[in-house]
Amino acid sequence: MTTEAATVIEGRIVRLGDNVNTDVILPGPYLNLTDPEELGKHLLETYDPEIAASVAPGDVLVAGTNFGSGSSREQAVLAIKARGVQAVVAAGFARIFLRNAINLGLPVYECPPAAAAARPGERIAIDPKAGVIRVAGQEFTIPAQPRFLADLMAAGGLVEWTRHRLEERRGEEVQDRR
Amino acid sequence: MAGLTVAQKILSAHGLEDLTPGSFGLARVDLVMMNEVSGAPAIRAFERMGADRVFDPERVALVADHFVPAKDARSAELVAGLRAFARRYGISKYWEVGTTPDAGIEHTLLPEQGLIRPGDLIPGGDSHTCTYGAFGAFGAGMGSTDIASALALGEVWIKVPESVRVEFKGDAGPYVTGKDLILAYIRAAGVAGATYAALEFTGPAVRALDIDGRMALCNMAVEAGAKTGIVAADEVTLDWLRGKVPADRLEPVTADPDARYDREVVVDVDGMTAQVAQPPSPDNVVDVTEIEPGVRVDQVYVGNCANGTISDLRQLAAMLKGRRVASHTRLIVVPATQAVYRQALKEGIVETVLEAGGMMSPPTCGACFGGHMGILGPGETAVATTNRNFRGRMGHRDSRVFLANAYVAGAAAVAGEIVDPATVAEPVGAQS
Predict the structure, then answer these.
(1) Which of A166, B6, B197, B361 has the greatest CB tally within 10 Å of its CB?
(2) Pick from B41, B196, B281: which is nearest to A74 by CB?
(3) At B432, is the pLDDT very low, low, confident or very high (cuts 50, 70, 90)?
(4) All domains of chain B in start order, with CATH
């Protein structure tokens, strides 16, 4: 499954392994923080302090299978976005993380061969319109995303989608009263 | 048309039309739950959505449980925010330990309060919302923005999961509990073995479990990546719910005899002994008898939404009775709710814990997620009845957590290392 962004995303690869869970993406002790910038400071802190320190705006996280497993904490996505990470490419995503990313408009791409080819520090380019990822001199196809998720993303994420739906309902209620 | 699974029937009853795995739709919800940690971003998102009311104040449950009693000023603000949200939108189902009677940890508390019924669809702002599967309900953990949307609309977007039938067969050993069944499944399936699937647990070993055992089983479905884990309601479920839930709301949802499962898994637990998940992953599971002798245990933690029930405390007490906690080990006992705490008092379990040298904590998610009330230092090792043992989960990055049932935890508290509970004391029911 894949979410869509309008333009080509190009950035430096931060390479992560399999089963990177939300506890190591954003550790539990920081769940009392609410400012995304503050959360961002602790991104990947328990995963690997060196990698954590190296994440820079414009980077693309590339991970193995089951990225974002464990806790439902949306703060993990907020921390990733706060550090200026453009997108996450993985061999696979855990369910709740995937929902959170889609809902909050963090572009995520499930593409096992692209993830396997990605080397740390090299460049990766994601072309959502063409449906391809270019990395390590190769080009990989991103599976097309389901219609429902395309609409959700086109609406600007779940906040906007829900806002529209609430407005529609209010319109219907006004009609009913007439 | 092929028959339907429990998950498909519940989704269908809540408005999903296409029940093909992978298809999308909107589902009406019966109850929406959040805590102070998922609540803070959810409340912000709710406001940004332009919502001016929750879909139904009677069908919202708010539980401050992660950082309570407030660990610091920031935690106090989160709790205050949740409390203010309850007041502002007329939500009476608000719990905070020390303030509201019978409060506690959300996933043990909500069933106790009669808020979970067979066939319900419950999105919760916590990954262990799948615990409600113990009652034949469809509980699914979601992030804060999903919860905000559910609060505003009374519905959530759903991707129809694959249904996986997990049958436990055989007669397990005397120290085997619901915790061990789920650890045995995760051992076989791996942490991504059930990604996006709805697990339906069945077989004689599951039917023989009481509700506490079933909650432990369903609680860790998410540790295999599942969306939910369900035990179809039966007489055990209905007996437990009677008196808590109006009789006309007790309608079990069962799978059709010709239900089509995407996968069927058999877990043979015949003769199985207690299971232990070694750090740093819930699927790194071995028999307790396979653990190398001499793993020094600094802390034993009995509690959390998986295993903080009266059954767990009884298992712990069976190990502790007449014994002392090892001199280099500390024991922290966290009843999941005040009702569990009171029952433990009545049964003399609290006295047993204190006499052994252990300590009682108020109900809180506490140290399970590294929050507070028992954080591990560098190099420390814990045995915990919790559900996650990722690196740094309960404290320092270089601390370790072994996940096990309360027998193994109690035995470790006494021995100061991980041992087979059979070498310490008889199980519950065997002592007379």
Answers:
(1) B6
(2) B41
(3) very low
(4) 10-268 (3.30.499.10), 279-423 (3.30.499.10)
Q: Does residue B27 surpass a pLDDT of 70?
A: yes
With CB atoms and an 8 Å threshold, state whether A166 touches B152: yes
Q: For B257-277, write each residue's pLDDT tens digit.
A: 999 999 999 999 999 999 999
ipTM of the complex: 0.96
**E strand or H helix at B324:** none
- Contact flag B48-A159 (C-beta cutoff 8 Å): yes
φ, ψ for residue B178 (rounded to 5)? -55, -35
A95 closest CB neighbour out of B40, B195, B371: B195
- Considering only CA atoms, give the Rg of chain B: 21
> Is residue A151 in a domain?
no
pLDDT at B1: 64
From B71, B70, B86, select the one nearest B33 (Cα to Cα): B86
What is the side-by-side order of every strand in the sheet holding B121-124? B94-96, B60-64, B32-35, B121-124, B138-141
Domain range enclosing A92 = 9-145
* Residue of chain A nearest B159, judged by CA positions: A148
Q: Do residue A95 and residue B196 have CB atoms under 8 angstroms apart?
A: yes
Pairwise CA distance, residues A157 & A164, whole Å: 11
Segment B304-324 mean pLDDT: 98
Instruction: Decide: B230 and B200 in contact? Cβ < 8 Å.
Output: yes
- Cβ within 8 Å, pair A31-B195: no
Tell me how many domains chain A contains. Answer: 1
**Which pLDDT tens digit goes with each residue over A120-141?**
999 999 999 999 999 999 999 9
pLDDT of residue B431: 53
Specify whether the CB–CB gap between B367 and B395 falls below 8 A: yes
Q: A121 in a domain, yes or no?
A: yes
Q: What is the pLDDT of residue A6?
A: 56
Distance, CA of A160 to CA of A114 (rounded, Å): 31
Q: How far apart are CA B179 and CA B134, in angstroms?
A: 13
Look at residue A1 and tell me if it is in a domain: no
Angle at A91 between CA A85 and CA A92, to 5 degrees: 90
pLDDT in the model for residue B330:
98
Residue A29 is nearest to which of B142, B371, B391, comparing CB atoms? B371
Contact B355, B246 (CB under 8 A): no
Say which CATH number the domain at A84 has: 3.20.19.10
pLDDT at A2 over 70: no
Give chain A positions within 8 Å (CB) of B390.
21, 23-24, 70
Distance (Å, rounded) from C-alpha B187 to C-alpha B285? 5
pLDDT band, very low/low/confident/very high, at B294 (cuts 50, 70, 90): very high
Which residues in chain B have their CB less than 8 angstroms from residue A45's CB? 397
Residue with tokens 């029940």: B19
- Put simply, the answer to whether A163 touches B397 (Cβ < 8 Å) is no
Distance CA A74, CA A65 (A): 19
Has residue A160 been placed in a domain? no
The shortest CB-CB distance from B38 to any of A72, A92, A161 is to A72
8 A C-beta contact, residue B418 and residue B383: yes
